[in-house]
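Teaching soon. Invent one.


***
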Amino acid sequence: MTQPDRLIFATNAGTRRPTGGLLAPIMWIAGVIATLVAMTVGAILAVFTAAAVAVIAVFAAVLVFFAGFALRARRAMTRRNRRAGDEDVIEARKVDGAWVTYGWERTGR
Protein backbone atom coordinates (compact mmCIF):
# COMPACT_ATOMS: atom_id res chain seq x y z
CA MET A 1 0.00 0.00 0.00
CA THR A 2 1.40 3.36 -1.00
CA GLN A 3 1.28 6.59 0.94
CA PRO A 4 -1.74 8.11 -0.98
CA ASP A 5 -3.68 4.84 -0.47
CA ARG A 6 -3.21 5.12 3.28
CA LEU A 7 -4.68 8.67 3.22
CA ILE A 8 -7.71 7.53 1.24
CA PHE A 9 -8.48 4.55 3.46
CA ALA A 10 -7.97 6.32 6.77
CA THR A 11 -10.64 5.36 9.31
CA ASN A 12 -11.72 8.86 10.29
CA ALA A 13 -11.21 10.67 6.96
CA GLY A 14 -14.92 10.77 6.04
CA THR A 15 -16.36 11.31 9.50
CA ARG A 16 -14.73 14.60 10.45
CA ARG A 17 -15.37 17.96 8.89
CA PRO A 18 -12.44 20.19 8.15
CA THR A 19 -12.13 22.81 10.86
CA GLY A 20 -11.07 25.62 8.56
CA GLY A 21 -8.24 26.76 10.74
CA LEU A 22 -8.00 30.38 11.79
CA LEU A 23 -10.60 31.63 9.29
CA ALA A 24 -13.49 29.57 10.74
CA PRO A 25 -14.49 32.04 13.50
CA ILE A 26 -14.17 34.97 11.11
CA MET A 27 -16.36 33.24 8.54
CA TRP A 28 -18.89 32.39 11.25
CA ILE A 29 -19.09 36.05 12.34
CA ALA A 30 -19.38 37.14 8.69
CA GLY A 31 -22.29 34.69 8.24
CA VAL A 32 -24.06 36.06 11.32
CA ILE A 33 -23.59 39.64 10.08
CA ALA A 34 -24.85 38.73 6.59
CA THR A 35 -27.90 37.06 8.16
CA LEU A 36 -28.66 40.13 10.27
CA VAL A 37 -28.30 42.44 7.27
CA ALA A 38 -30.61 40.25 5.19
CA MET A 39 -33.22 40.21 7.98
CA THR A 40 -33.01 44.01 8.33
CA VAL A 41 -33.44 44.56 4.58
CA GLY A 42 -36.40 42.16 4.57
CA ALA A 43 -38.04 43.99 7.47
CA ILE A 44 -37.57 47.37 5.78
CA LEU A 45 -39.04 46.05 2.53
CA ALA A 46 -42.00 44.61 4.45
CA VAL A 47 -42.67 48.03 6.03
CA PHE A 48 -42.49 49.76 2.63
CA THR A 49 -44.85 47.17 1.14
CA ALA A 50 -47.34 47.64 3.97
CA ALA A 51 -47.18 51.43 3.53
CA ALA A 52 -47.78 51.09 -0.21
CA VAL A 53 -50.82 48.87 0.39
CA ALA A 54 -52.17 51.40 2.90
CA VAL A 55 -51.75 54.28 0.43
CA ILE A 56 -53.48 52.29 -2.31
CA ALA A 57 -56.36 51.54 0.07
CA VAL A 58 -56.74 55.23 0.93
CA PHE A 59 -56.78 56.21 -2.75
CA ALA A 60 -59.36 53.53 -3.49
CA ALA A 61 -61.57 54.77 -0.63
CA VAL A 62 -61.37 58.35 -1.92
CA LEU A 63 -62.19 57.16 -5.44
CA VAL A 64 -65.27 55.25 -4.22
CA PHE A 65 -66.32 58.29 -2.14
CA PHE A 66 -66.22 60.64 -5.14
CA ALA A 67 -67.89 58.06 -7.38
CA GLY A 68 -70.78 57.98 -4.91
CA PHE A 69 -71.05 61.78 -5.09
CA ALA A 70 -71.02 61.64 -8.90
CA LEU A 71 -73.80 59.03 -8.99
CA ARG A 72 -75.87 61.03 -6.50
CA ALA A 73 -75.47 64.19 -8.60
CA ARG A 74 -76.40 62.27 -11.74
CA ARG A 75 -79.59 60.98 -10.12
CA ALA A 76 -80.48 64.49 -8.92
CA MET A 77 -79.97 65.94 -12.40
CA THR A 78 -82.11 63.18 -13.92
CA ARG A 79 -84.96 64.00 -11.52
CA ARG A 80 -84.58 67.71 -12.21
CA ASN A 81 -84.66 67.07 -15.98
CA ARG A 82 -87.84 65.04 -15.62
CA ARG A 83 -89.50 67.90 -13.74
CA ALA A 84 -88.28 70.38 -16.33
CA GLY A 85 -89.95 68.28 -19.03
CA ASP A 86 -93.35 69.23 -17.58
CA GLU A 87 -92.82 72.79 -18.81
CA ASP A 88 -93.21 71.60 -22.42
CA VAL A 89 -97.00 71.65 -22.04
CA ILE A 90 -98.21 74.91 -23.48
CA GLU A 91 -101.88 74.66 -22.54
CA ALA A 92 -104.02 72.13 -20.68
CA ARG A 93 -107.78 72.08 -20.16
CA LYS A 94 -110.04 69.75 -18.30
CA VAL A 95 -112.63 68.32 -20.66
CA ASP A 96 -115.22 65.91 -19.21
CA GLY A 97 -113.01 64.95 -16.28
CA ALA A 98 -109.86 64.38 -18.35
CA TRP A 99 -106.99 66.72 -19.01
CA VAL A 100 -106.36 67.60 -22.67
CA THR A 101 -103.14 69.34 -23.68
CA TYR A 102 -102.58 71.52 -26.69
CA GLY A 103 -99.25 72.36 -28.25
CA TRP A 104 -97.38 69.51 -26.59
CA GLU A 105 -94.92 67.47 -28.61
CA ARG A 106 -92.94 64.48 -27.48
CA THR A 107 -89.21 64.80 -27.93
CA GLY A 108 -87.45 62.10 -29.87
CA ARG A 109 -90.34 61.31 -32.24
